[in-house]
Amino acid sequence: MRELTEKASVGIYLVQDGVFKYVNPKLAEIFGYTVEELIDKKGPKELVLPEDWPCVEENIRKQISGEVETIRYNFRGIRKDGEIIHVEVYDTAIIYRGRPSIVGILIDITAQVRAEERLKHINAVLYGIREVNQLITRERDRNRLLKGICDALVETRGYYHVWIALMDESGKLVTNVEAGLGKAFQPLIKQLEHGVLPVCGGLALSQAEVVVIQDQRTRCGNCPLVEKCCDKGTMAIRLEHEGKVYGLMSVSIPTRMVMDEEEQVLFEAVSKDIALALHDIELDEERRRAENALRESEERFRTLAEKALVGVYIFQDNRFRYVNPALAKIFGYRPEEIVDKLGPVDLTHPDDRHMVIENIRRRLTGEIEAAHYTFRGIRKDGSIIYCEAIGRRIEYHGRPAIMGTLMDITDRKRAERELRDAYRRLQRAYEELKALDKMKRNLIANVSHELRTPLTIIKSAVELAIEETDPDRRNKFLGMAIDAIARQTLVIDNLIEAARMERGQREFNITDVNIADVIKQVSDEFKSMAIKSEIKIEVNVNKNLPIVRADQDKLRYVLRNLISNAIKFNKPGGSVRITAEKRKDMVEVCVSDTGIGIPKEEQARIFEPFYQVDSSLTKQYSGAGLGLAIVKEIVEGHGGKVTVESEIDKGSTFCFTLPIKGKG
What we know:
There is one protein chain. By secondary structure, this protein is α+β, with helices and mostly antiparallel strands. It is built from 22 helices and 22 strands. Strands 2-1-5-4-3 form a five-stranded antiparallel β-sheet, with helices on both faces. Strands 7-6-10-9-8 form a five-stranded antiparallel β-sheet, sandwiched between helices. Helix 5 packs antiparallel against helix 6, helix 5 runs parallel beside helix 11 (261-283) and helix 20 packs antiparallel against helix 22. The longest helix has 58 residues, at 410-467. The two termini are 37 Å apart. The relative contact order is 0.05. Residues 615-619 have low confidence and may be disordered.
């Protein structure tokens, strides 16, 4: 299990009492720490953005209290270097070392979230540009046009704030408009009226390229808008057409988007559209202005769409009127095979068509303005893909249509399935770990009992022997002590052998062994025990058996364990039969009893360390569950095999094989 978690491609953690008790290397890497810096030193609260902590804390509380068993949610985290990331977690409540804990899987979805935010932002800017283009074609008043442009770019959520200032050739302020700034814009107006430009404005008027400012506090300390926009990025550009500069435009956007090349291209495109509109208004050529603006804007939109990495589409009357190469490629077509020939339904899986048609209907009827949804698509070759679409209602050539973007998310869906599979595997591993913990707890209880009971017998027997004057009774008490010492020695030997087994230490002193002699000697050791238990021992061994190659001490251990079990799990009046025969290149030894037997479904597990058929037998017959596991290890270490055949209430037969001298 540790190898699984240590090499996992997702973060795995265990939290108890608000502190990490385990994290794998991937989780530490996601947050920029080493494993040692997190375990027993930090908790979830220190890695969660303060604004998101109440939600995370509530989810933890629900799991610990038992309201929910498993929960999946997202939050924003804080890396060691201060960077904010987005993560997704699968949590479940467990009991770890007797205390409530949370175990889960965590993945870094920052790239995915930012990609989705970028897609939404670019989509919003595209919508804003289209609104601007429509304004340009119908609005004749310059100030209303500029105000409408600012409002459109903010209302479509393309930009946080927008302001435009027009100047004459001498640099004097002619007019200004804004959206999203309100009263915060008033000090800047006064500054502009005095001919003082902010840093972004001065740079924009001095160059043709887009001006980009990421850190406003450092570069724009004297700007009246710095407090309003300090946590945002700024882009500014001069409004220029055919060499004439009309003024400048400045916008505020998310800081991480400010360096995006496509963002800058879109911003430059809308500035050119605005400059073109100002040029047309200036020339007072309303008809020509409307035609040229619409045509040039449509061409720019098409150019941008053609270069976009996501699918862009416009459909009307159940037919695509435009698709860019990226969308056609997603579905395995050429653009000309789709435009005016296919509609959304033709590219949608039959089971998802009703949902897609309903989303289209609601937008076209004006019930909703926009929709964001996923569906299964069908490629030209018949293969199925997963798609994410964002689209809204527009007017296209004077009639309702839908324009939007589409992204192939098949790989993301596959990754989500793999994550769920990994989580299920982790759950199974956890169940196995719980079973192992239970087994170990039983072992501790059994071994404690097995060690403590003989000590109690030894102490009591010795005390009685000391006080007893009758020799026969004294010898009886001393015999009891000796038996208890033998029993304790067997337990200790079992534990020592088990420890060697665990460390992989197979140390065998292989010699030539007369197995018939060893069987007789060991069986004689149990005569007294058999008589006390009213059990008859029968030994049926050919004295001419071939010599085997074995470790005599470990062979004795195997025989003692099997014979002891045969007596211990037998019935009064029952019997134990020991046989040995030559089987090809091996000698097979079998120990049979007429005892309680072993259930068929348990027989495959009785050779596992610490396993016992029935926990109630532990108290009735004693034992730590190690003997048969050690027997199997010893026999296999000699190149032999151990087997069992058993039937409830009829008895069991354990057989093992050893190689003959010169054959193994």
